[in-house]
Design a protein that fits this description.
340 residues, alpha+beta, 60s Ribosomal Protein L30, Chain: A, Phosphoribosyl-aminoimidazole Synthetase, Chain A, domain 2, 2 domains, seven-stranded mixed sheet, four-stranded mixed sheet, globular, binds adenosine-5'-diphosphate, binds magnesium ion
């Protein structure tokens, strides 16, 4: 922890420090860089993006009792995730994440120690990815802790990766492993202790910024999205936006050793784990001829990239091989229902 910040006593709450006191505390501990011309402290932040690049902006809301419950929430993980979900969106567009703005609605009885842990988590990921916290807004909330994070990044205009560029014949790839976060959540809600390597995927998901940027730079990804709601649901967005169909093989879905082991003992949990969200891996489509380049990128970044299916013409709809190798058909319209 930054030694400039006075230690918070256990019982201190936001009411003791006040909104401006909290902003001052946040301001004391942030880093900056030469691209931030004006950070916290004026009416707007003033930041630059490299010439020839376009601005990417994304925002996510995290509302107490809607997205999280205080009694189950690790405040460090909440801070980390508040940044991670947004950085993952920048990754999915092929961009470089640069600036973060933080909106906080805080009940006045909130312990300052909790807020410091929240900031520890948020700033740890910002530091890891060279993202600068350069502004925000802080208010007292009459109900619940409410967090709104905006992240901005940039990307050369011709390298923007959207959801709408998938073409019939493309192979479908996914990075890393799927289902670890859902498995951790499942175990936590059942009072079991997840293995550390599974818990960390739930509490501290890693946005795949380097992968997204590399794929965009090489012009490899025709369409890309981050897996936040679950692979079926997120692939569904690509199919809808690109107006195409697909065939995937669920037996090819990349699983961690821990998830494989768990599903070996609890096979009835397969759908729940595989369809779970919050992996924040990247799902993208690319020409089949790019397979070797993708394998090289995977080796270079030390991150697995697995082909799981093909894009088809729209009239084929969506179909998938289930765990027993049976081909299941789903109409394109049935996709959302299927993913839920
Ligand atoms: P204004 O009245 O112009 O909205 P504020 O008094 O709300 O200004 O905020 C003062 C400065 O502190 C601004 O630069 C704002 O961006 C920053 N700020 C406020 N809340 C936060 C926060 N939660 N995190 C980071 N910066 C913040
Ligand atoms: Mg304000």
């Amino acid at each position: 922890m930054d030694k400039n910040i006075p230690n918070t006593t256990e019982n201190e709450t936001l009411a003791h420090l006040g909104e401006f006191g909290l902003i001052a505390r946040i301001q004391q501990r942030i880093k900056t860089n030469s691209q931030v011309l004006i950070g916290i402290g004026d009416d707007c932040s003033v930041c630059t993006i490299p010439p020839g690049e376009v601005l990417l902006t994304t925002k996510d809301l995290l509302l107490e009792d809607v997205h999280f419950r205080r009694e189950w929430t690790d405040m460090y993980a909440l801070g980390w995730k508040s940044a991670a979900v947004n950085l993952s969106d920048i990754a999915a567009m092929g961009g470089t994440a640069r600036y973060l703005h933080l909106g906080l609605g805080i009940p006045s009885h909130t312990p300052l120690a909790d807020l410091e842990l929240f900031m520890d988590g948020l700033l740890a990921l910002c530091d890891q990815e060279d993202v600068i916290l350069c502004g925000g807004d802080t208010c007292r909330s009459a109900q619940g802790l409410n967090i709104s994070v905006t992240v901005q990044g940039s990307v050369p205009q011709q390298e923007v990766c959207t959801r709408s560029g998938a073409r019939p014949g493309d192979a479908i790839f996914v990075s890393g492993t799927l289902g670890d976060s859902a498995l951790a959540l499942l175990q936590l809600t059942q009072g079991e202790k997840p293995l550390d390597e599974i818990a960390v995927r739930h509490h501290r998901p890693q946005p795949r910024l380097e992968l997204g940027r590399t794929l965009a730079q090489h012009g490899v990804a025709h369409a890309m999205i981050d897996v936040s709601d679950g692979i079926f649901s997120d692939l569904g967005h690509i199919l809808a936006c690109s107006k195409v169909g697909a065939e995937v093989d669920t037996r090819l879905f990349p699983l961690s050793r821990a998830a494989k082991n768990y599903l070996h003992h609890c096979p009835d949990r397969r759908a729940q784990v595989l369809r779970g969200g919050e992996d924040y891996e990247l799902l993208f489509t690319a020409a089949v001829e790019e397979q070797q380049l993708i394998a090289d990128i995977s080796t270079r970044l030390g991150l697995s990239i697995t082909p799981v299916g093909r894009i088809h013409p729209p009239e084929d709809g969506f179909r998938y091989f289930d765990h027993s190798g049976t081909l299941q058909h789903t109409s394109a319209g049935g996709f959302n229902h299927f993913g839920s």
